[in-house]
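Design a sequence for this backbone.
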């Protein structure tokens, strides 16, 4: 994984959170987000597939095995906070998901034609 920014992701309301993890100490791989379900808590949180999970509710993940991570996740009842090392190309993954385009248009103030042109140039 390349270098990226560290961000804090917060979700409330309890499981299901809407993402799947992979990796862990026993696999000699960093704990990473493998999959995000569409229209889930995770899909609207800023979490991206490929992000590295640094900590979960203040618990560092570097020395945790995958089963330990699952046990930790199952113990969380309402509020989930994760420190994430985001992928450098997360913006491009965000732009690939066409469902975000209306909010991107509003955020950037572009018309749909200009947004489509911008996205085509970035993805192009």
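Sequence:
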């Amino acid at each position: 994984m390349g270098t990226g920014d560290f961000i804090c992701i917060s979700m409330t309301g309890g499981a299901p959170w809407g993402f799947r993890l992979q990796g862990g100490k026993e696999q000699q791989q960093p704990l990473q987000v493998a999959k995000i379900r569409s229209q889930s808590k995770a899909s609207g949180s800023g979490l991206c597939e490929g992000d590295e999970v640094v900590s979960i509710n203040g618990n560092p993940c570097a020395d945790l095995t995958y089963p330990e991570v699952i046990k930790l996740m199952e113990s969380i009842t309402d509020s989930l906070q994760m420190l994430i090392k985001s992928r450098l190309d997360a913006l491009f993954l965000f732009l690939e998901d066409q469902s975000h385009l209306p909010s991107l248009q509003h955020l950037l103030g572009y018309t749909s034609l200009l947004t489509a042109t911008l996205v085509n140039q970035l993805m192009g």
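The radius of gyration is 16 Å.
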